[in-house]
From TrEMBL:
Ranges in coiled-coil conformation: 191-254, 293-320
Cellular component, GO annotation: axoneme; microtubule cytoskeleton; nucleus
Name this polypeptide is given: Tektin
Ranges where the record places region Disordered: 1-28
Compositional bias per record (Polar residues), positions renumbered to this chain: 15-26
Subcellular location(s) per record: Cytoplasm, Cytoskeleton, Cilium axoneme
Any matching Pfam family: Tektin
InterPro entries for the chain: Tektin-like, Tektins
Protein backbone atom coordinates (compact mmCIF):
# COMPACT_ATOMS: atom_id res chain seq x y z
CA UNK A 1 0.00 0.00 0.00
CA UNK A 2 1.44 3.34 -1.11
CA UNK A 3 2.08 6.00 1.48
CA UNK A 4 0.97 9.60 1.02
CA UNK A 5 3.80 11.96 0.03
CA UNK A 6 5.18 14.46 2.46
CA UNK A 7 3.15 17.66 2.43
CA UNK A 8 4.82 20.84 1.13
CA UNK A 9 4.77 24.23 2.82
CA UNK A 10 1.89 26.47 3.72
CA UNK A 11 -1.32 25.83 1.78
CA UNK A 12 -3.77 28.58 0.86
CA UNK A 13 -7.53 28.29 0.98
CA UNK A 14 -9.78 28.65 -2.06
CA UNK A 15 -11.06 31.95 -0.67
CA UNK A 16 -7.46 33.22 -0.44
CA UNK A 17 -6.86 32.03 -4.02
CA UNK A 18 -10.01 33.82 -5.19
CA UNK A 19 -9.07 36.90 -3.16
CA UNK A 20 -5.62 36.95 -4.77
CA UNK A 21 -7.17 36.71 -8.26
CA UNK A 22 -9.70 39.46 -7.49
CA UNK A 23 -6.95 41.62 -6.01
CA UNK A 24 -4.84 41.25 -9.16
CA UNK A 25 -7.80 42.14 -11.39
CA UNK A 26 -8.99 45.02 -9.18
CA UNK A 27 -5.49 46.46 -8.87
CA UNK A 28 -4.95 46.24 -12.63
CA UNK A 29 -8.27 47.96 -13.31
CA UNK A 30 -7.57 50.61 -10.66
CA UNK A 31 -4.09 51.32 -12.02
CA UNK A 32 -5.47 51.57 -15.56
CA UNK A 33 -8.22 53.89 -14.33
CA UNK A 34 -5.71 56.10 -12.49
CA UNK A 35 -3.47 56.05 -15.54
CA UNK A 36 -6.37 56.99 -17.81
CA UNK A 37 -7.38 59.88 -15.49
CA UNK A 38 -3.80 61.14 -15.37
CA UNK A 39 -3.48 60.87 -19.16
CA UNK A 40 -6.73 62.75 -19.72
CA UNK A 41 -5.75 65.41 -17.21
CA UNK A 42 -2.33 65.61 -18.84
CA UNK A 43 -3.84 66.03 -22.31
CA UNK A 44 -6.27 68.64 -21.02
CA UNK A 45 -3.44 70.46 -19.27
CA UNK A 46 -1.32 70.31 -22.42
CA UNK A 47 -4.12 71.70 -24.56
CA UNK A 48 -4.95 74.41 -22.03
CA UNK A 49 -1.33 75.45 -21.50
CA UNK A 50 -0.60 75.35 -25.24
CA UNK A 51 -3.53 77.67 -25.90
CA UNK A 52 -2.56 79.91 -22.99
CA UNK A 53 1.11 80.04 -24.01
CA UNK A 54 0.23 80.72 -27.66
CA UNK A 55 -2.14 83.50 -26.61
CA UNK A 56 0.38 84.99 -24.19
CA UNK A 57 3.12 84.91 -26.81
CA UNK A 58 0.78 86.43 -29.40
CA UNK A 59 -0.42 89.10 -26.96
CA UNK A 60 3.13 89.93 -25.93
CA UNK A 61 4.26 90.08 -29.54
CA UNK A 62 1.31 92.38 -30.34
CA UNK A 63 2.16 94.61 -27.41
CA UNK A 64 5.80 94.64 -28.46
CA UNK A 65 4.77 95.48 -32.01
CA UNK A 66 2.55 98.31 -30.77
CA UNK A 67 5.32 99.56 -28.54
CA UNK A 68 7.84 99.37 -31.37
CA UNK A 69 5.46 101.35 -33.58
CA UNK A 70 5.02 103.93 -30.82
CA UNK A 71 8.77 104.14 -30.28
CA UNK A 72 9.41 104.34 -34.03
CA UNK A 73 6.75 107.04 -34.39
CA UNK A 74 8.24 109.02 -31.56
CA UNK A 75 11.70 108.35 -32.92
CA UNK A 76 10.65 109.78 -36.29
CA UNK A 77 9.02 112.68 -34.55
CA UNK A 78 12.12 113.25 -32.46
CA UNK A 79 14.35 112.91 -35.48
CA UNK A 80 12.25 115.44 -37.34
CA UNK A 81 12.24 117.62 -34.31
CA UNK A 82 15.96 117.09 -33.85
CA UNK A 83 16.49 117.83 -37.50
CA UNK A 84 14.45 120.97 -37.13
CA UNK A 85 16.37 121.78 -33.99
CA UNK A 86 19.60 121.08 -35.83
CA UNK A 87 18.42 123.17 -38.69
CA UNK A 88 17.35 125.83 -36.33
CA UNK A 89 20.64 125.51 -34.49
CA UNK A 90 22.48 125.64 -37.80
CA UNK A 91 20.42 128.57 -38.88
CA UNK A 92 21.05 130.15 -35.55
CA UNK A 93 24.74 129.35 -35.90
CA UNK A 94 24.77 130.74 -39.37
CA UNK A 95 22.82 133.63 -38.13
CA UNK A 96 25.36 134.14 -35.39
CA UNK A 97 28.12 133.45 -37.84
CA UNK A 98 26.60 135.96 -40.20
CA UNK A 99 26.43 138.47 -37.41
CA UNK A 100 29.91 137.63 -36.27
CA UNK A 101 31.22 136.96 -39.78
CA UNK A 102 32.05 132.41 -38.91
CA UNK A 103 10.49 68.19 -23.70
CA UNK A 104 -9.12 -1.01 -8.74
CA UNK A 105 -7.67 -0.19 -5.36
CA UNK A 106 -3.98 -0.48 -6.04
CA UNK A 107 -4.26 1.32 -9.33
CA UNK A 108 -6.83 3.81 -7.96
CA UNK A 109 -4.66 4.34 -4.85
CA UNK A 110 -1.58 4.79 -7.01
CA UNK A 111 -3.43 7.16 -9.33
CA UNK A 112 -4.92 9.21 -6.49
CA UNK A 113 -1.58 9.39 -4.67
CA UNK A 114 0.16 10.44 -7.88
CA UNK A 115 -2.48 13.12 -8.44
CA UNK A 116 -1.89 14.45 -4.91
CA UNK A 117 1.86 14.45 -5.53
CA UNK A 118 1.46 16.26 -8.87
CA UNK A 119 -0.85 18.90 -7.36
CA UNK A 120 1.57 19.43 -4.46
CA UNK A 121 3.96 20.80 -7.07
CA UNK A 122 1.92 23.98 -7.38
CA UNK A 123 3.53 27.16 -6.07
CA UNK A 124 2.48 30.31 -4.29
CA UNK A 125 -1.22 31.09 -4.15
CA UNK A 126 -1.92 28.20 -6.53
CA UNK A 127 -1.08 25.76 -3.68
CA UNK A 128 -4.60 25.77 -2.26
CA UNK A 129 -6.63 23.27 -0.24
CA UNK A 130 -9.40 23.22 -2.81
CA UNK A 131 -12.28 20.74 -3.37
CA UNK A 132 -10.05 18.67 -5.65
CA UNK A 133 -7.53 18.17 -2.86
CA UNK A 134 -10.30 17.21 -0.42
CA UNK A 135 -11.83 14.75 -2.88
CA UNK A 136 -8.46 13.18 -3.66
CA UNK A 137 -7.67 12.86 0.05
CA UNK A 138 -11.09 11.30 0.69
CA UNK A 139 -10.50 8.97 -2.23
CA UNK A 140 -7.16 7.82 -0.82
CA UNK A 141 -8.67 7.32 2.65
CA UNK A 142 -11.61 5.41 1.18
CA UNK A 143 -9.33 3.14 -0.86
CA UNK A 144 -7.19 2.43 2.21
CA UNK A 145 -10.34 1.69 4.23
CA UNK A 146 -11.56 -0.60 1.47
CA UNK A 147 -8.26 -2.46 1.51
CA UNK A 148 -8.42 -2.71 5.29
CA UNK A 149 -11.99 -4.05 5.27
CA UNK A 150 -11.17 -6.55 2.56
CA UNK A 151 -8.09 -7.64 4.47
CA UNK A 152 -10.21 -8.14 7.59
CA UNK A 153 -12.55 -10.40 5.64
CA UNK A 154 -9.58 -12.30 4.28
CA UNK A 155 -8.16 -12.65 7.78
CA UNK A 156 -11.51 -13.96 9.01
CA UNK A 157 -11.64 -16.46 6.17
CA UNK A 158 -8.09 -17.58 6.85
CA UNK A 159 -8.82 -17.96 10.56
CA UNK A 160 -12.05 -19.81 9.80
CA UNK A 161 -10.30 -22.32 7.50
CA UNK A 162 -7.71 -23.03 10.25
CA UNK A 163 -10.23 -24.00 13.03
CA UNK A 164 -10.54 -27.48 11.78
CA UNK A 165 -7.33 -29.60 11.46
CA UNK A 166 -6.78 -33.32 10.69
CA UNK A 167 -5.40 -33.95 14.21
CA UNK A 168 -8.47 -32.52 15.86
CA UNK A 169 -10.71 -34.47 13.52
CA UNK A 170 -8.94 -37.72 14.50
CA UNK A 171 -9.17 -37.01 18.21
CA UNK A 172 -12.57 -35.43 18.25
CA UNK A 173 -14.41 -36.81 15.21
CA UNK A 174 -17.86 -36.00 16.31
CA UNK A 175 -16.79 -32.70 17.72
CA UNK A 176 -14.96 -31.93 14.50
CA UNK A 177 -17.97 -32.78 12.37
CA UNK A 178 -20.07 -30.34 14.36
CA UNK A 179 -17.35 -27.73 14.20
CA UNK A 180 -16.87 -28.35 10.46
CA UNK A 181 -20.57 -27.94 9.77
CA UNK A 182 -20.61 -24.77 11.83
CA UNK A 183 -17.44 -23.58 10.09
CA UNK A 184 -18.93 -24.26 6.66
CA UNK A 185 -22.04 -22.36 7.58
CA UNK A 186 -19.97 -19.48 8.91
CA UNK A 187 -17.70 -19.65 5.85
CA UNK A 188 -20.70 -19.36 3.55
CA UNK A 189 -21.93 -16.37 5.54
CA UNK A 190 -18.49 -14.78 5.38
CA UNK A 191 -18.38 -15.29 1.60
CA UNK A 192 -21.77 -13.68 1.24
CA UNK A 193 -20.75 -10.81 3.49
CA UNK A 194 -17.52 -10.43 1.53
CA UNK A 195 -19.32 -10.30 -1.81
CA UNK A 196 -21.82 -7.79 -0.49
CA UNK A 197 -19.07 -5.69 1.09
CA UNK A 198 -17.05 -5.74 -2.12
CA UNK A 199 -20.07 -4.59 -4.11
CA UNK A 200 -20.81 -1.81 -1.62
CA UNK A 201 -17.19 -0.72 -1.51
CA UNK A 202 -16.99 -0.77 -5.30
CA UNK A 203 -20.05 1.48 -5.43
CA UNK A 204 -18.43 3.85 -2.93
CA UNK A 205 -15.21 3.85 -4.97
CA UNK A 206 -17.12 4.62 -8.18
CA UNK A 207 -19.09 7.39 -6.48
CA UNK A 208 -15.95 8.89 -5.00
CA UNK A 209 -14.13 8.62 -8.34
CA UNK A 210 -16.91 10.51 -10.09
CA UNK A 211 -16.96 13.16 -7.34
CA UNK A 212 -13.19 13.59 -7.57
CA UNK A 213 -13.26 13.85 -11.36
CA UNK A 214 -16.10 16.39 -11.20
CA UNK A 215 -14.13 18.45 -8.67
CA UNK A 216 -11.06 18.24 -10.92
CA UNK A 217 -12.99 19.39 -13.99
CA UNK A 218 -14.65 22.20 -12.04
CA UNK A 219 -11.34 23.33 -10.56
CA UNK A 220 -9.67 23.16 -13.97
CA UNK A 221 -12.47 25.30 -15.42
CA UNK A 222 -12.10 27.89 -12.63
CA UNK A 223 -8.33 28.00 -13.11
CA UNK A 224 -8.75 28.46 -16.88
CA UNK A 225 -11.17 31.32 -16.22
CA UNK A 226 -8.71 32.90 -13.77
CA UNK A 227 -5.87 32.49 -16.29
CA UNK A 228 -7.92 34.02 -19.12
CA UNK A 229 -8.99 36.92 -16.88
CA UNK A 230 -5.37 37.52 -15.86
CA UNK A 231 -4.20 37.41 -19.50
CA UNK A 232 -6.92 39.96 -20.36
CA UNK A 233 -5.80 42.18 -17.50
CA UNK A 234 -2.17 41.89 -18.61
CA UNK A 235 -3.03 42.84 -22.21
CA UNK A 236 -5.08 45.86 -21.12
CA UNK A 237 -2.35 46.91 -18.71
CA UNK A 238 0.28 46.65 -21.46
CA UNK A 239 -1.92 48.78 -23.77
CA UNK A 240 -2.40 51.35 -21.00
CA UNK A 241 1.35 51.37 -20.31
CA UNK A 242 2.02 52.08 -24.00
CA UNK A 243 -0.53 54.92 -23.95
CA UNK A 244 1.00 56.31 -20.77
CA UNK A 245 4.53 56.20 -22.20
CA UNK A 246 3.30 58.09 -25.27
CA UNK A 247 1.63 60.72 -23.08
CA UNK A 248 4.76 61.02 -20.93
CA UNK A 249 6.77 61.81 -24.08
CA UNK A 250 4.15 64.42 -25.00
CA UNK A 251 4.23 65.99 -21.52
CA UNK A 252 8.02 66.07 -21.60
CA UNK A 253 8.01 67.68 -25.05
CA UNK A 254 5.52 70.32 -23.86
CA UNK A 255 7.61 70.92 -20.76
CA UNK A 256 10.71 71.52 -22.89
CA UNK A 257 8.71 73.87 -25.16
CA UNK A 258 7.35 75.85 -22.19
CA UNK A 259 10.85 76.06 -20.73
CA UNK A 260 12.07 77.53 -24.00
CA UNK A 261 9.18 80.01 -23.97
CA UNK A 262 10.06 80.99 -20.40
CA UNK A 263 13.68 81.59 -21.40
CA UNK A 264 12.45 83.75 -24.28
CA UNK A 265 10.25 85.81 -21.95
CA UNK A 266 13.13 86.21 -19.47
CA UNK A 267 15.42 87.27 -22.30
CA UNK A 268 12.89 89.86 -23.45
CA UNK A 269 12.57 91.22 -19.90
CA UNK A 270 16.33 91.34 -19.49
CA UNK A 271 16.82 93.09 -22.82
CA UNK A 272 14.19 95.70 -21.96
CA UNK A 273 16.05 96.64 -18.79
CA UNK A 274 18.69 98.20 -21.04
CA UNK A 275 16.30 100.88 -22.29
CA UNK A 276 17.70 104.36 -21.62
CA UNK A 277 16.20 107.22 -19.73
CA UNK A 278 12.47 107.65 -19.68
CA UNK A 279 12.05 104.68 -22.02
CA UNK A 280 12.79 102.39 -19.02
CA UNK A 281 9.16 102.43 -17.96
CA UNK A 282 6.61 99.85 -16.77
CA UNK A 283 4.49 99.87 -19.88
CA UNK A 284 1.94 97.33 -21.09
CA UNK A 285 4.67 95.23 -22.63
CA UNK A 286 6.43 95.05 -19.27
CA UNK A 287 3.26 93.97 -17.51
CA UNK A 288 2.46 91.49 -20.28
CA UNK A 289 5.92 89.94 -20.08
CA UNK A 290 5.72 89.65 -16.29
CA UNK A 291 2.30 88.02 -16.55
CA UNK A 292 3.61 85.69 -19.24
CA UNK A 293 6.56 84.67 -17.04
CA UNK A 294 4.25 83.97 -14.09
CA UNK A 295 1.87 82.00 -16.31
CA UNK A 296 4.72 79.98 -17.84
CA UNK A 297 6.21 79.23 -14.42
CA UNK A 298 2.81 78.00 -13.20
CA UNK A 299 2.39 75.99 -16.40
CA UNK A 300 5.83 74.40 -16.06
CA UNK A 301 5.11 73.53 -12.42
CA UNK A 302 1.77 71.93 -13.40
CA UNK A 303 3.40 70.02 -16.27
CA UNK A 304 6.19 68.78 -13.98
CA UNK A 305 3.61 67.67 -11.40
CA UNK A 306 1.55 65.85 -14.02
CA UNK A 307 4.68 64.32 -15.54
CA UNK A 308 5.72 63.07 -12.10
CA UNK A 309 2.26 61.60 -11.51
CA UNK A 310 2.32 59.92 -14.92
CA UNK A 311 5.79 58.45 -14.33
CA UNK A 312 4.75 57.23 -10.87
CA UNK A 313 1.59 55.64 -12.29
CA UNK A 314 3.62 54.00 -15.08
CA UNK A 315 6.09 52.60 -12.54
CA UNK A 316 3.24 51.17 -10.43
CA UNK A 317 1.70 49.58 -13.53
CA UNK A 318 5.07 48.06 -14.45
CA UNK A 319 5.46 46.57 -10.96
CA UNK A 320 1.92 45.19 -11.00
CA UNK A 321 2.46 43.92 -14.55
CA UNK A 322 5.50 41.97 -13.34
CA UNK A 323 3.48 40.54 -10.46
CA UNK A 324 0.68 39.50 -12.84
CA UNK A 325 3.21 37.80 -15.14
CA UNK A 326 4.58 35.81 -12.19
CA UNK A 327 1.08 34.82 -11.12
CA UNK A 328 0.24 33.85 -14.72
CA UNK A 329 3.28 31.57 -14.75
CA UNK A 330 2.08 29.90 -11.54
CA UNK A 331 -1.44 29.54 -12.94
CA UNK A 332 -0.17 27.96 -16.15
CA UNK A 333 1.98 25.57 -14.11
CA UNK A 334 -0.99 24.69 -11.90
CA UNK A 335 -3.16 24.08 -14.97
CA UNK A 336 -0.49 21.78 -16.38
CA UNK A 337 -0.41 19.81 -13.12
CA UNK A 338 -4.22 19.59 -13.05
CA UNK A 339 -4.20 18.31 -16.64
CA UNK A 340 -1.60 15.71 -15.76
CA UNK A 341 -3.76 14.63 -12.82
CA UNK A 342 -6.77 14.26 -15.12
CA UNK A 343 -4.70 12.30 -17.64
CA UNK A 344 -3.41 10.06 -14.87
CA UNK A 345 -6.95 9.29 -13.74
CA UNK A 346 -7.84 7.97 -17.20
CA UNK A 347 -6.10 4.78 -16.09
CA UNK A 348 -9.03 4.20 -13.72
CA UNK A 349 -11.32 3.78 -16.76
CA UNK A 350 -8.99 1.47 -18.68
CA UNK A 351 -10.00 -2.22 -19.11
CA UNK A 352 -7.06 -3.29 -16.95
CA UNK A 353 -8.73 -1.68 -13.91
CA UNK A 354 -11.90 -3.73 -14.34
CA UNK A 355 -10.13 -7.02 -15.06
CA UNK A 356 -9.31 -9.37 -12.25
CA UNK A 357 -5.84 -8.61 -10.98
CA UNK A 358 -3.44 -11.40 -9.99
CA UNK A 359 -3.63 -12.28 -6.28
CA UNK A 360 -1.48 -14.21 -3.87
CA UNK A 361 -2.64 -17.73 -2.90
CA UNK A 362 -2.12 -19.09 0.63
CA UNK A 363 -1.74 -22.92 0.56
CA UNK A 364 -3.78 -24.85 3.15
CA UNK A 365 -4.67 -28.52 3.67
CA UNK A 366 -8.17 -29.77 4.55
CA UNK A 367 -9.06 -32.76 6.71
CA UNK A 368 -8.91 -35.21 3.77
CA UNK A 369 -5.43 -34.05 2.78
CA UNK A 370 -6.57 -32.07 -0.26
CA UNK A 371 -4.94 -28.76 -0.94
CA UNK A 372 -6.89 -25.54 -0.46
CA UNK A 373 -5.97 -22.11 -1.74
CA UNK A 374 -6.96 -18.95 0.08
CA UNK A 375 -6.88 -15.57 -1.65
CA UNK A 376 -4.63 -13.14 0.20
CA UNK A 377 -4.00 -9.41 -0.21
Amino acid sequence: MSALPAKPGLRHSVSEWNSNNHQLSDTAEHERYVSNVIRQEGRSLRNETNCKTTWDESDTSRRLSDRIWDVARWKDTLEICAQKVDEEMEALTLSRANRAGARCTAVPLEVSSECLTLRDGRRGYELVTDPVHEQLRKEVELIERVQQVLQQHIDKAFEQLCSSTPQEWVQFSQYNVACAEEAMHLSQQIREDTSLTRAQLQNELDTQRRATEFALRKRNHHEEQARDELEWQIKNTEDEMAEMESDIHGLDADLQAKTASLKLAHTRLENRTNRPGMDLCRDEVQHGLVDEVHQLEATIMALKQKLSEAQHSLQKMKLHHSRMLQDLSRKQEALSLEQRSMNTRTRLKSPSCTDKTPVLLVPLTNSSGSNLQLLAQ
